[in-house]
């Protein structure tokens, strides 16, 4: 879980890319990983920046193992873009 920050019962991360296309490609990969895990992020994209927040809603909006596992998958996906 490289560089994820845990605060306010959520994991937070911001990723920067070369451009919008690269950021969008990353988001598409994350979308497939999230769907496979049946765990979906709160996120936003502005040009080359993707901001992600993970929390488990059905566990009372707290950080659970589902969040940590998805954060690890997201970090691995990002590593291919770095």
From TrEMBL:
InterPro entries cross-referenced by the UniProt entry: PCD_sf (IPR036428), Pterin_deHydtase (IPR001533)
Gene3D superfamilies for this protein: Transcriptional coactivator/pterin dehydratase (3.30.1360.20)
Any GO molecular function: 4-alpha-hydroxytetrahydrobiopterin dehydratase activity
Keywords assigned: Lyase
Signal sequence interval, chain numbering: none
EC number per UniProt: 4.2.1.96
Catalytic activity, reaction form: (4aS,6R)-4a-hydroxy-L-erythro-5,6,7,8-tetrahydrobiopterin = (6R)-L-erythro-6,7-dihydrobiopterin + H2O
PANTHER family in alphabetical order: PTERIN-4-ALPHA-CARBINOLAMINE DEHYDRATASE
Family of this protein: Belongs to the pterin-4-alpha-carbinolamine dehydratase family.
Protein name: 4a-hydroxytetrahydrobiopterin dehydratase
Organism of origin: Neolewinella antarctica
Highest classification ranks of the organism: Bacteria, Pseudomonadati, Bacteroidota, Saprospiria, Saprospirales
């Amino acid at each position: 879980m490289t560089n994820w920050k845990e605060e306010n019962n959520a994991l937070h991360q911001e990723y920067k890319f070369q451009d919008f296309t690269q950021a969008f490609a990353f988001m598409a990969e994350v979308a497939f990983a999230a769907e496979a895990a049946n765990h979906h992020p709160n996120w936003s994209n502005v040009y080359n920046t993707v901001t992600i927040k993970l929390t488990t809603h059905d566990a009372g909006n707290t950080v659970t193992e589902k969040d940590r596992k998805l954060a690890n998958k997201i970090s691995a996906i990002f590593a291919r873009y770095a």
